[in-house]
Amino acid sequence: MPKDSAFPGVPAALRRWRRHRPCFPEAAAMEPPPAPGPERLFDSHRLPSDGFLLLALLLYAPVGLCLLVLRLFLGLHVFLVSCALPDSVLRRFVVRTMCAVLGLVARQEDSGLRDHRVRVLISNHVTPFDHNIVNLLTTCSTPLLNSPPSFVCWSRGFMEMDRRVELVESLKKFCASTRLPPTPLLLFPEEEATNGREGLLRFSSWPFSIQDVVQPLTLQVQRPLVSVTVSDASWVSELLWSLFVPFTVYQVRWLHPVHRQLGEENEEFALRVQQLVAKELGQIGTRLTPSDKAEHMKRQRHPRLRPQPAQSSFPSSPSPSSDVQLTTLAQRVKEVLPHVPLNVIQRDLARTGCVDLTITNLLEGAVAFMPEDVSEGSQSLPSASAPKEIQRETGPGG
User: Fold this and answer.
1) What share of the chain is helix, strand, coil (3-state, %, to 5)?
2) Are 106 and 99 spatial neighbours (Cβ–Cβ below 8 Å)?
3) Which Gene3D superfamilies does the entry mention (predicted)?
4) Would you say 194 and 152 are in contact if contact means Cβ atoms under 8 Å apart?
5) Ramachandran class of 353: left when φ > 0, alpha when ψ lies in -120 to 50, beta otherwise
6) What is the pLDDT of residues 298-318, one digit of tens each?
7) Positive or negative CA dihedral for 114, 82, 149, 42?
8) Residues 6+ apart with CB under 8 A from 132
């Protein structure tokens, strides 16, 4: 506290207040971290913001362009080989080796946990080629949502389905088939890809209505120089960037199968699996949905639609309970610092949420305000940057 404080009697009142301060840093430290917003789950820029990485990318660009051209021709051969060979261990080994030459490296951990009796596999979603990578490790089929059957659907390795309204029933019949060997389903309950760093989208419940047991797996993707995926990029551009960079590593980790508990609804089952996958990834399971991603992309394309931050003179409307609590805390600060205007106190409390920090900011001059009982000569000044500066102002020429 400054020794030349302009408020006599404040130290004693401040000491009395600190005995009953309502701010508990220990309790705040125990609170769980807030769920990340859509701006942290989706990357909007492909190129790095770091100057050193951007310089390295520019130096690598000629090499990357040569790799891109060569890998395009090699990729055509990979596609023909994958179509010619029947589904087998040999086919997966050959295609996996050729994909490594393309820069797509597939690795797996805890493969012994893979239960071949489970017909539904659940994974987080990072890139448009997640299902292709998992298919290099184990036989599986993935339906393409919201898209009619076509050659592009088949060539990308998706299972062709008739209509979305019959999707769940068709998948139930597919899993109930007795053909050998059984082909499991690989489903992505997030339905949209994220950057794979911060958190998971809310898991849809329909994949958990197919069978009562699922086997989750985690997918982590690493790539040098550029972002792994961009929110508004097409699968074609993602493919070209994958062939341009030196390599992209897909790390698959198998988890134990998860059974539905007695009386557990599909939503509860989905939430439990989501929290399990998020814990294994070291991320947070959010309640964001694909519609939140669409809204985020819309704001990215049209900056005028972004919500503007609340200005000091036009604060956002808080809920009644928070408004009452803010008024109560402001009155307590007002008892300690009666010279400070009430609106200044409320403004800083809304930012800090702590009475102690607000009092400290006001005493140390971190918040500019005009005391309510200054002389007329000082009122001609536009503002006062600190209490001790106000004390030195003795007139217009001071």
Assistant:
1) 45, 10, 45
2) yes
3) DNA helicase RuvA subunit, C-terminal domain (1.10.8.10)
4) no
5) left
6) 877 766 544 444 443 334 444
7) positive
8) 156, 157
